[in-house]
Amino acid sequence: MTAQPLFLASFDIEEWFHAENLKGSLPTSDWNKLESRVERNTHELLDVLAATGATATCFVLGWVARRYPALVRRMVTDGHEVASHSDTHPRLYSLSRPALAEELTRARETLQQLTGLPVWGIRAPMFSISDAVLDYLAEAGYWYDSSFYDFKAHDRYGQLSTPINPERSVVEVRPGLLELPMSRVAVGPFALPWAGGGYFRLIPPRLYRWGVARRLALRSWFMFYFHPWELDTEETPPPHLPPSLRFRAYVGRGRMRRDLRVLLQRFGSRRIDLTLRAMGFTPPSDR
């Protein structure tokens, strides 16, 4: 637990068609034939961060970075950390060891070549970690992962046998590898998912900010995540998208520009890497 309340805004930089809720209803599996919207949406997101004076960590897909290198360079110029969100957005726990190594190595090399900076952090798409994934991350020299979401009712999130207290801000899960769990909020006897994304869009804004303030008062740390496509009110849903998935993908988007700005104005934000350094942790290059 940290002494000073810290709100860490993090953003998973991916295209709208990378969202798992949409994949089964897309008209084609060839991403090059689908309309790209990530560049515009992410610039708008970076504009919100600039307007509020907030700094953040951007978990970027290698696939996106190769297509929009200037977008990644703007993140660095604006003072944000660039970390990995994998290369092509697979569920990491479904990959063989060679495929996992290829997927994450390509993403990391892409980002490091574009930024000229080391990539220390990673977030698995759909929080799809496993014990084997953590083993690989430690061996590959990552400093931290932020993919553990202790919400077993979700059908896509990864599960671990490695013991992690989800209420702690930072947990060393392998020698030299830190895990930064996604934040929950205690309401009565229940610990509810609250970290961001669809929960941010679904929960009424004043109630959501109350939950963040409550968590910060009790634990002094809040890990928030968001996607650029969640700002996009002009995106056309794929045909034949089931109503339940349409709701999960599109609910609340109309108020996200305002609500995200208000959230950052109230709580501010800091980069993950600089926050860890301030807490006394050191990345592999400094050891």
SSE map:
Blueprint: E1 6-13, H1 20-23, H2 38-52, E2 57-60, H3 62-67, H4 69-77, E3 81-84, H5 97-115, E4 121-122, H6 131-139, E5 144-145, E6 171-174, E7 177-179, E8 184-187, E9 190-193, H7 198-202, H8 205-219, E10 221-226, H9 243-250, H10 256-267, H11 272-278
Parallel strand pairs: 1-2, 1-10, 2-3, 4-5, 5-7
Antiparallel strand pairs: 6-7, 8-9
Helix pairs in contact: 2-10
Beginning-to-end CA distance, first to last residue: 23 Å
Rounded mean pLDDT is 94
Structural class of the secondary structure composition? alpha/beta
The total count of helices amounts to: 11
Q: Over the alpha carbons, how many angstroms does the gyration radius reach?
A: 18 Å
Shape: globular
Instruction: Please indicate the percent range of residues in DSSP E strands (runs of 2 or more).
Output: 5-15%
The strand line-up of the biggest sheet is 3-2-1-10
Low-confidence stretches: none
Give helix and strand order, one letter per element, not per position: EHHEHHEHEHEEEEEHHEHHH
Q: What's the total number of strands? A: 10
Q: What helical percentage do the residues reach?
A: 25-40%
Describe the main β-sheet briefly. 4 strands, parallel
